[in-house]
C-alpha cells in the first residue's frame, strides 16, 4: 500500500513531501528514505534534499527537469519506501553534558513557568529520554530531536535573539536541539554544553547523523570549564 | 610556480562559486553567488568551468594587480573597469598583462559584480565548494594584500591569442539591473494560511531594508498577515521562500538561508527572480508579480539556453585562435548524487 503523504509544489524548483500517516516514526523514516533515493537519482536534476521530522524538501534544477517528471519520480520513491526498516543500521550514541540555567540557559526559569513545572523537574524531563536524532538542521547541522515530555509545548520566542553562541541547548514546541554554530535563534535556551559539535576540518562537520541516538546529563559549572573545547564523539560500543 | 593576483583595494569581496549542494542535507545553506547568471557568464567568458571559484564584489570599489598575464571577465552590477587606467568593457574577455593594475569603481546600481580569471583560483573547500558560510565560520573576506593563487601553472594565454579573443563579438545577454525590479513569485505551499491577505504582496511596492544580506532580502511595506498560528515542526525551506516572520518585515530567503525553519511559505521567488533579488540595494523599491510555475520554469530555461549558446560561441572563439584546449568552459550540472548522502562511519 502506498504510504500516506502529501506532495506539494514549492516554487518552480522544489517539491515538499509530508508524511501524513499520523505515525511520527513511520513518517520520519519514509521522508528520509525518499531523500536518499531522490539524492541518488542523478539523472533527475535533483540538487539537494532536506529531510526533517515528517517532511522532505526536494530541490531540483528547473532547467533540467520539470515538475511532472520530478513528481512522478518522487511518487515512485514513496511507493518503494519501507517505513518499517530502520533508517540507520548501525546507530551510534552521543552523550552530552549540560550545565542548566543561569547564564548557561537564561530561559530555563521561563520555560519552567510556561510548562508549569519547577526548574529541577524541567531538567529531569530533559535528561530522561534516549533521543533519536531526527535530522540535521539550521544552523550548522543542529541535531534536531523530539522535545522532552512537558505538559505544555513551550513556544518559540516572540522575538528571536540575533546571536546565540555555539553549544546552547534549547527547546521549542515539540522539538529540542543543540546549536553547533553561533547564529540568530528563536528557541528557548535552557542550558549549554562545553563540548564542540562542529569542526570545519571534518566532512560532514558534525559527528552524528539522522538515526543516531543522543542523551543529556547534568554537570556543574566547574566541570564546564574543564571540558570546554573537547569534541563531542560517539560512545564506544552499541547502546 | 603558479601566478597570482594581489588585492590592492579589498572593499567588500569574497571568493565564491555556484554553491554547496551537499550542504542542505547536512544543515548547511547552499550559499554561493547571489547572482548566479552573472557568475556563470563571467566564468564562461574567461574560459573556466561555470562552477569555478571567482571573486564576488559587494557594493564597493575593488582593485588588484597580477604577476602574470591573465584573461579576465567582469560581469554583474555595472562598474567602471580600468586596466592601468584604460577603460575596459564588462561582459567581455579582457587581457591583463603581468604587472598591470585592474580597478573596478563606481557601482551605483545593483549590488554584486563578478571577476572570473582564466585558470580560476586555489581556494579552501568545504563539502565541494569554496562559497563562504558565515554561520559555519567558513571563508574569509578578501583583504588588502590578500594573494590569490591561480590554478594554472603557466601564463594562460599568449597575448596575441588573448587579443583575438577580445575582438570576437560574443553577443552576451546582459540582464537589466535597475530601480524598477520586478520579482516573479509562484504560490507557496502554505499560501492559505494568509487567508486572502497574500494579495498584499502583489500590490506593493516594498522597500528593501538595510538588514538584508545573503541569508534573506528583507523589506517593509503593507505586509500579508498570517491568520492561523500554530507551532509547526521544522521543515526544509526552499531558497526564494517568501515569509512573514514576527518583526514587521517581509523576507525573501536567499542562498544563505537556514535550511530548516517553522514559518509558513507564502510564495517562492522564481530562479530568475532570485538573481534579480541578488542585485537589489537597501532603500530600493521592488514589486512582486504573481507567476505560474510553468512561466517560472520557462523563464529559467530561456536564460539557460542563452548560456548554452554563449558557451558554444566561446568554444568557437577559442577554436578560431587555434587554442581550443584552453577553453575548459562547460556546464557542470551540480547534483547531490550518486555519492552516498552519508559517508560511512569510520
Q: How would you describe what is shown here?
A:
The complex is a heterodimer of chains A (239) and B (346). In chain A, the strands form three sheets. Chain A has an eight-stranded mixed β-sheet with strand order 6-14-5-13-10-11-8-7. Chain A has a four-stranded antiparallel β-sheet with strand order 1-2-4-3, covered by helices on one side. In chain A, strand 10 and strand 11 form a beta hairpin. Chain A has 239 residues and is of the alpha+beta class. By secondary structure, chain B is α+β, with helices and mostly antiparallel strands. Chain B has four helices and 20 strands. The longest helix of chain B is centred in the C-terminal third of the chain and has 28 residues. The chains are: A alpha+beta (239), B alpha+beta (346). At the A-B interface, helix 1, strand 3, strand 4 and strand 7 of A face strand 15, strand 18, strand 19 and helix 4 of B.
How would you summarize the topology of this molecule?
The complex is a heterodimer of chains A (239) and B (346).
Chain A lengths: L4 E5 L4 E6 L4 H17 L5 E6 L3 E6 L6 H14 L12 E8 L7 H8 L3 H9 L3 E2 L2 E3 L4 E5 L14 E4 L3 E5 L2 E4 L4 E3 L2 E5 L20 E6 L2 H7 L12
Parallel strand pairs in A: 5-14
Antiparallel strand pairs in A: 1-2, 2-4, 3-4, 5-13, 6-14, 7-8, 8-11, 9-12, 10-11, 10-13
Helix pairs in contact in A: 1-2
Chain B lengths: L3 E6 L3 E4 L19 H10 L8 E5 L3 E5 L3 E7 L3 E4 L2 E3 L4 E4 L4 E5 L6 E6 L29 E3 L9 H9 L13 E7 L18 E3 L7 E5 L14 E2 L4 E3 L6 E4 L6 E2 L5 E3 L1 H7 L7 E6 L2 H28 L26
Helix pairs in contact in B: 1-4
